[in-house]
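Cross-posted from the bioinformatics board.
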Amino acid sequence: MGASKAPARPRRRDDRTVAWLFLAPALVGFGLFYLYPTGLGIYYSLTDYGMLSAPNLVGAENYRDLVGDDKFWNALEVTGYYVVLNIVSQTVLALALATLMHRLTQSVVVRAMLLVPWLVPNVTVGLLWMWMLDANLGFVNHVLGALGMRPTGFLTSPSWAMPTVAGINTWAYAGYTALLLYAGMLQIPRYLYESAALDGAGEWRMFTRITLPLLRPILALVLVVSLIGSFQIFDTIAVTTKGGPVGATRVIYFYIYEQAFTNFRMGYASAIAVVLAVVLGALTAVQMRLLRASRSDLA
Amino acid sequence: MRSTRRRAGTLLLCLALVSPLGACAGSDNSADGTTTLDYWLWDDKQLPAYQDCADAFHAANPDVTVKITQTAWAQYWQNLTTQLASGDAPDVWTNQSSYYPQFATTNQLLDIAPFVQRDQLDLTAYQPGLSEVWVKDGKRYGLPKDWDTMALVVNTDMLGKQGVDAAQLEDLTWNPVDGGTFEQVVAKATVDDKGRNGLDPAFDKNSVQVYGFLPEWADGANGQNGWGVFAAANGFAYLDQNPWGTHYKYDDPKLAETITWFKRLIDKGYAPRFDQQSTVANSELLIAGKGAMTVTGSWTILTFTDPRVKQKLAFTPLPTGPAGRRSPINGLSDAIWTGSPHPEQAWKWVAFLASADCQDRVAQRAVVFPAITSATKKVVAAHQAEGRDVHAFTDVAEKNTFLLPITEHGTEINPIVQDAVQSAILGSADTGNALKEANNKVNALFK
């Protein structure tokens, strides 16, 4: 209402009211779905809330329990392992794909195809690979068997399970990440490549000397976003391994889920979630700092 | 700016107020004095039978309508707990023995002992032992509705080809040292890619086509579908007392011996290695002809005898161990929520569900064994009429059963014990130590 009247009335130019009005829908959403639950989560983490009984304040007890909970530390470790595997493989693959698209083909079809795995819901991806990788009935082991190799329990062997999950998610997300990087590469002025070519630089040299340095801010953003996303791995594991075998894929999110919705220890689960948020905040800050993400060399 | 902020605040408040109002708007007490009871269950196969009961109940009590909601097992308990937490739970729901303690201790279940006493319900009509599962500290939290026991399911075609006939399967023996006649049968049923069975000196354990036995390792703290049954046959007892014990005995060497025997079975190639096993359920593998034998529960009778199953599968009794033939018996009950606005009507419905009238209707469909002994006979007759032999489940139910643990902290104990058993089977930990360590963790929960 205020917004439609405002331009008609001559007055001191101050857009702040209007700005707030435009921000309001987002703010309401943010407040209702992020700020309020976060506050509630922090409060619950200080209680013994068990869903069926009223929460009682217990101070820092949940956090003290966390320190001595080897499953929690194991979950952090397992998550870290997954993040490293996933981020490295996904970023390298995405960079390669993006460079190929950038330097070789501008085909829209190819670009669209890269997005297909990303469009498939994660639960479907999980089920699909679970069947294909099955030790007994799966297609992949059938092929391996035909090549004379012994069947591998990709998702049932403790040493294979996590690399397999990381591989599945790399398959699902590399295309999307590649597209983000490709968009970043399009911002790099063409003449740089032309002059480099005139100076006799090869593709590899152009990649390391032009593409990578100038892509840095985008790469940093993509890394931060995928790192946070990677830490939140849940659905693929909930579908394929359920945290097993023997806790080999019990990542932090799955542990939170188990505590909250299997053991109904909401207070404890909230405490883990708060710790995870702090860890992610710190990691993001470090990363932004290291990659000088807010400054571009193009400017 | 101030006014906008206030407006935004109002909007927020509206949103916060409106949604819960909308959620609780559905009152179940209509103006004309009729009542609608919400009833939850998880088994889609049982839904038609209980709908039949609900219709019969409504015919006898026209002022009460029962609305049944069926939710798959995987979501059932989470949905229920969320509904309980939000104060909008079903009036009556199907309870399971390892899940119910947490609802009992948090005062979510109505004590029906006064109703049972008032209406002088005959508790001896039920399969012995079933009704006492639902009693804690003198309070009764449910009436038994059905039960299940375990048996072997075997591929008779495959065993027949190896010269094992049905009569031999009736009296198998087992012990953790040499596996008894059971292990002999498992060995014969294991066949490699050249068609040699497990007893053939040339048997190649690295290229097994059909495994003689499919063990279940994702089996929580009970091992109901595998190790628990064999451990019990070896004389293992989970607890100091059951139900409501407070000290577990997973460090019992009898359990370790059993797990070690399974490990040997795997080493010999008669069962799939843990890290090379399928993610597909054992029942599916058996149906696909990838295994010859496994332990199964009576709730799977219709799955294995479905006419579309190409393999010829039959149910045979569990092997007899040093401590005899032992099967867990597990029952379900119907519970009333303490927050139900219609406890009297809810009780009427629960009593009807546990009555011969309703259980006979369930029996006709032969999906489960009803808790009332007279109805059980009807199920057996219904199975026989269809040519299904279920004596392996019913014989053992008569005398050789034991209860699965009913204690607090059930959901927390499950992953601790399951991880220990799995790491022992993998060989990544010494069996005895892994179980001892798990047992300490489990018992620490009760301190």
